[in-house]
Design a protein that fits this description.
The complex is a heterodimer of chains A (492) and B (287).
Chain A: H1 2-10, H2 14-39, H3 43-60, E1 68-70, H4 72-85, H5 87-106, H6 118-136, H7 145-164, H8 170-184, H9 214-246, H10 252-268, E2 274-276, H11 278-286, H12 292-308, H13 310-314, H14 318-332, H15 336-339, H16 346-362, H17 365-386, E3 389-395, E4 400-409, H18 414-419, E5 429-439, H19 442-457, E6 461-465, H20 469-478, E7 486-488
Parallel strand pairs in A: 4-5, 5-6, 6-7
Antiparallel strand pairs in A: 1-2, 3-4
Helix pairs in contact in A: 2-3, 2-4, 2-11, 2-12, 2-14, 3-10, 3-12, 4-5, 4-9, 5-9, 5-10, 6-14, 6-16, 6-17, 7-8, 7-14, 8-14, 9-10, 9-11, 16-17
Chain B: E1 3-8, H1 14-28, E2 32-40, H2 41-44, H3 59-95, E3 101-108, H4 110-117, E4 123-127, H5 144-150, E5 155-158, E6 167-172, H6 176-187, E7 195-202, H7 208-223, E8 229-234, H8 237-248, E9 252-256, H9 262-268, H10 271-278, E10 283-286
Parallel strand pairs in B: 1-2, 1-4, 2-3, 4-5, 6-7, 6-9, 7-8, 9-10
Antiparallel strand pairs in B: 5-10
Classes of the chains: A alpha/beta (492), B alpha/beta (287).
Amino acid sequence: MNLNTIKRQWFFNTKQDLLAGAVVGLALIPEAIAFSIIAGVDPKVGLYTSFIIAVLTAFLGGRPGSISAATGAMALLMIDLVKDYGLEYLLAATFLTGIIQVVFGLLRLGRQMKYVPRAVMIGYINALAVLIFLAQLPQLTDVPIMVYVITLLSLAIIYILPRFTQVVPSPLVALAVMTIAAISLKLNVPTVGDMGELPTTLPLFALPQVPFNLETLQIILPYSFTMAIVGLLASFLTAALVDDLTDTPSDKNQEAKGQGIANIVTSFFGGMAGCGMIGQSVINVQSGGRGRLSTLASGIFLLFAILVMQDWVSQMPMAALVAVMIMVSIGTFRWSSFSNVSRIPRTETAVMLTTMLVTIFTRNFALGVATGIVMSTVFFSRKIAQLVFVDKVLRDDGTHRIYKVAGQIFFLSKEEFLKSFDFREVVDRVTIDLTQAHLWDQGAVETVDKAVGKFRRNGSEVEVVGLNQASATLFNRLAINKESTVLKNQNS
Amino acid sequence: MKKILLCSDGSAFAENTYRYGAWFATNLKAEEVDVLCVTDVRGRQASASNLSGSIGIDASENLLDRLVELEHEKAKINHQRAKLVLQGAVATLKAEGVERVNSIHKTGFLVDCLEQFETNYDLIVLGKRGEAADFASGHLGANLERIVRSSHKPCLVTSRKFKPIERVLIAYDDSSSSQKILQFIANSPIFTGLELHIVAVAKSKSDRTAIAQIESAKQLVQQAGFEPICSVIEGYSEKAISNYVTEQDISLLLMGAYGHSRIRHLVIGSTTAQMLRSTHIPVLLFR
């Protein structure tokens, strides 16, 4: 049985998975280096991270075919930590991030992803793309003119080559051509080797060298918590994207646990926290990768390539790397969220833009997403509150007024609800028919109560009919005017 | 009140699976035969093979559009194909004299589908290998072993060649599944008038327990009106039985399925799997 499950999960698409894994693994090299530079650590940190996380999530992740490694979203969060306290604290924070993520997985918080609206997700993705792009700008300011030439040429190769052949990874061709050109023409441009140490061996096991005390915890906890949330969000987003692309389901809680364990382990091998990668996962699916094997292969190809080609990699011009990252940022950005702006509800675009801008300016994805969620919730409840319809009927020669209310009544509905009644009208009896309505909270009961009170002050007898069971229970518990109100359930 | 479920995928085995299915339906006096065709989702997945690793504007949306388009076309073809397979099956079964034939078309994995289905049926018929035979390791179909293992109903595993059923062999080992075989024979009219062999495999021909076992089996079957040919043979079960099958020109083998423990199965594989591999006649498996 187990053998068959393994076969089904791992070897149903072997050749394609290996090919896609190779493409992704090689594409991970420039990204891992670039993200290490964003975070302010040696390129080897990002490269080890990408190897370990890719390999572990291949086995433990909940979404086969998605790619996890060192990412920009996480790197952006750790800049200050690295600047103020150094690499060892980053390793400790990575460890704690993993623990938090595993706890999230065990608590089954993966399901709660549904509370993040689509507009917020798109805002998040756009912010990510913009931040990846912005992180490249330091490499493009105050540099020799040659750097711009290399960047532009690389971009040209990346985008034009696939029109002729899709058999070789064009970003890789760009990197290779530019590296050879830089070496043979002896161009004086910054190279990867200038940015810090590259890996020369397999990753080695070591505990983070930090004092294990409360003070350390105080320093790393805020970072770890944000990284845990952002990492999970990115990983879930990636998983959802791959779900859509491959039309297969994923296990979100397993994904959380897998990400957590991968982060814990990577912290012991000198790696930084990572998470699911949107751009790389798209590349993986585009190259035909579907199973866990593709993720595993990407990690192994990455390490193999970097160990074999380290001399070449260190001479790679940074400008070519920048071009690859620009491609990733362009590919990640949701252009349709702007090009289709006329078709998208305005409130959703507002939410998307707010999420995006808050994230970009604070460089904090958690804050951006939280803002977006709050905004969407407010917009949504406002819309629902507006959907209250009141139908007025006059009966018995103008002595009996019936109000038929339809819609969801809750704390926001107060104004709309009260506005639709005419409290000045002189009638003997008033009936409020709530058959098509639902009272949700204290605010709703208070509102109905208020209406009843106002009618009574005007000398009318008030009758509330048609409450459904839940609403009636709430009303009986909370209403002040209930004794004098004739409550009638239409069914009884 | 017997119902038979016939699994088909339009492979080389399918045609004979229908004929065996029809034979069993007629002889079991089954009131209904349902033909199940499961389109494997793996076959539907579009193989995107753009290895350029370059992603442009709205990469994921464009990729999604393309994959949906590709898979839509593939799925359409697969559904068409399944329809044809099912039509063919129904036609063959009707021509063989089965009156009520229904066809069921599902997508997913056969094993998963079968779990929901099997409770309603008294016999499951499937071919030894399927169209996805290149997936299989060894000589058994990729689905077969899992189905036979997970199924609680008798499973008929059909062979590539169809031969009218004349001589039936029971591989008897006194296990609970062997008892079920005897019950099955006693309760149904299926093998009336056929030559029935019962064989027990033991270390030596004079093994007392084996002889006693086979005697009791003989009596049971005799009560049901058969005149069985009984014998105890020596050797390893797989070899001894398959030799017996060839020597006596047996046309159907009845045996218990997967009697041995999982640990043993991991090390040397089960007798059942080896029997299925080595015989070229249909095997009816009981649990």
